[in-house]
Amino acid sequence: MKKVFLLVVSCGILVGGSFAQNVSQKLQKAFQQFESDSQLRHAISSLYVIDAKTGEVVFERNAQVGLAPASTQKIITSVTAFELLGKEYRYKTELKYAGEIEAGILKGNLYVIGSGDPTLGSWRWGHTKDTVVLSKWCNEVRKFHVNKIDGVILTNTASFAYQGIPDGWIWQDIGNYYGAGAYQLNWKENQFDLKLNSGDNIGSSVQVLKNGEEADYVNELKAAAKGTGDNAYVYYDNSIKGTIPVGEKGFLISAANTDPISDLLLDLHFALQAKNISAEVRHDSYVRGNMHGTKSELSKLKNIYTHYSPSLDSIIYWFNKKSINLYGEALVKTFAWEKTGFGSTDTGVAIVKKFWKEKGLDEEELNMYDGSGLSPLNRVTTHAQVEILKYAKTRDWFSYFYDALPEYNGMKMKSGTISDVKGFCGYHTAKDGKEYIFSFLVNNYSGRASQLLSKMYKVLDLLK
User: Fold this and answer.
1) Do 143 and 281 share a domain, yes or no?
2) pLDDT category, 298, cuts 50, 70, 90?
3) pLDDT one-digit tens code per residue, 416-454
């Protein structure tokens, strides 16, 4: 009986080992077929798969080659944020005043002091909505029995870099909502909607409206065939080009707001007026890189109210679920601001690379230029991404990170897409209980992304 039992166990081990070997062999064959596809003739691809429990390499191809990761880079920023900031981290935006309040008059200035919160005015949470924030601030001012501000509404920009947009972002992106920059004060995710009305004939002009009025753009939009979708692009030079389908009325696109700070101050000004609190705001009410007022005045600022952002785990949830580039850029600047007192992309990226070098990664595997992956200059390795995902799995905040990953093809993974780049990285548990961690990047493919997608899924299906 003992010999029979040992024989059964031995056979089980052999079968298990054979199965694991078969997965590797199947991946080897599938990846060879994938690379030989005509759509990949001029491309470079990398796939790295490990056993999540043992760390054993299941499959590796070009795992040390740096490739553009697109939005799969967000997993690097996310994991780093959990480690450097903590899942309970919250941004704060302070409403303060200088001077004295006498007989209902604030004899001094009202200040909005930011810390880089990318969620201020966002519609994704109840307490961050613009109307809710403004109403709360006005009510708090009212509690001080103020009905007039004998001064101006000011803000600060001294603690963050003047440049909101990272180096390497392309011209076609930075005028659109997904190319919005990150500042010391962000407002309504630094974007606004445009309403487009197209004619009934292909090639006809397209009307562009902002807040119900004709928008001031150099308008080169045209109507295209039905079913062609949104191919309209807003450019940083105040022009708009591309196409939307014919016969569209109220077709919405979103553009990047290049001056969210002024919009916030103006919105607060009008909200105060609606509450019968008179105040003045000027377009020159702030100077980038400087804080208005003398040092003596600034040191005596008195607090009216402090607004707190949602916790980091909630921010990371939306960051990855909806791939919000603004959140990644804000987080990278926050790393720098928390460590050095000045929020800049370059310093934040250097902090990310240093952190992972201390964890054993070669910092050259993370050739990063931003926090979101939008820059085509980024180059990271699939090996680095898998190592970071493996590290995350050991942390007590892992469930929050895992929950934030979208699901594609029945697998928990972050996707990434920029021009001629497609990627996936994440986790999967197979039917037999085997757990895998993987990263799959493709650069410079030909043809349509939808065609490539099905071919990538076919390879990843072998992990099921």
Assistant:
1) yes
2) low
3) 999 999 999 999 999 999 999 999 999 999 999 999 999
Q: Quick one: 238 and 271 in the same domain?
A: no
Strands 251-256 vs 191-198: parallel, antiparallel or unpaired: antiparallel
Q: Of 204, 217, 158, 173, give the one whose Cα is nearest residue 71.
A: 173
Phi, psi (rounded to 5 degrees) for 238: 70, 35
Instruction: Output the pTM of the full model.
Output: 0.92
Strand 148-155 with 44-51, pairing: unpaired
Give me the mean pLDDT over the 303-323 stretch: 98
Range of the domain at 427: 27-87+314-463
Average pLDDT, the chain: 92
Residue 22 within a domain:
no
Do the beta carbons of residue 71 and residue 415 sit within 8 Å? yes
Q: What is the CATH number of the domain that holds 133?
A: 3.50.80.20
The model's pLDDT over 228-255, given as tens digits with 9 standing for 90+, comes to 999 999 999 999 999 999 999 999 999 9
Question: CB of 89 within 8 A of CB of 337?
Answer: no
Nearest-angstrom CA–CA distance, 155 and 257:
18
Residue 4 has pLDDT above 50, yes or no: no
What φ, ψ does residue 72 adopt, rounded to 5°? -65, -20
Write the CATH number for 365: 3.40.710.10
pLDDT in the model for residue 157: 84
How many CB atoms sit inside 10 A of residue 99's CB? 18
How big is the CA angle at 387 (ends 431 and 82), to the nearest 5 degrees? 100
The residue from 238, 256, 274 where one domain ends is: 256
d(CA 340, CA 332): 12
State the pLDDT at residue 282. 56
Q: How many domains does the chain have?
A: 3
Domain match, 414 and 300 both: no
Tell me whether residue 154 is in a domain.
Answer: yes
What's the rounded Cα separation, in Å, for the pair 286 and 142?
A: 24
State whether 205 and 106 are in the same domain.
no
